[in-house]
Amino acid sequence: MIQVLHRALDIMELVAADPERPKSLGEIADALGLNHGTCANIMKTLVSRKYLEQLGAKKGYVLGSKSFALSGNDAYRKDLIEAAAPEMEMLTAAIRENSILAVIHGENRIVIHRANAEQELQVRTMDEKHVYDSASGRLLLGMMTDAEIDRFIHKYGLPPAGMWAEASTHEGMKRAVDLIRREQCSFQMLPGRQVVGLGVAIRNNGRVIASLSIYLPEYRYMAIDKVKLVTDLKATSDRISSKLGGK
After folding, report:
1. Best label site of 84, 122, 173, 192, fewest CB within 10 Å?
2. Whether residue 123 is found in the same domain as residue 234
3. What is the DSSP letter of 23?
């Protein structure tokens, strides 16, 4: 049992040493001097527990969402949440809608803090969703460099039309990214759920590190001052960014 624990930790440390580059089973096993079958069994467990993520058949492994929470990001996340939490509470009280703070990891956006409103009907989004399938994820993608977006698409593919129709082709993705950058805001209408999501960027010394988003029922979105809603959302993200080190 102790030996298996050591091997599991060795695998995670190896993957974490270069977290953006997927590593194959063979590469990991050979680097650690492990039998390929033994290594595969350990990694299967790590994948099932979300400490590793398999990108697809023969595409390799990267750290999973559970490792993300344990991989040295705690101090940065603590500072981010401490800066964002009071501002999110004020935003939520003002607009009476739920807000979330999210970061990107792998192909997913992960919620790291929530501020919940008290209206009877509220929209609650999952803690972990595909980048393409969330306003916050789309915002974070749009704020990447062109080279980073190309690598993301090469690794994870383009979104299916049913998830993000406007960006399901390379030309469509470019137009969608250009719009996000121009508006400094992302928009998502969830098909079949009558839900609207909006996301804006949070920066630390000019670098986008997180997204602030709100989700609300479509009927309430259609009835409110949309310009003021986006203005309030951006003003909140600006205050959070200023606390962290400016825009």
Report:
1. 192
2. yes
3. B
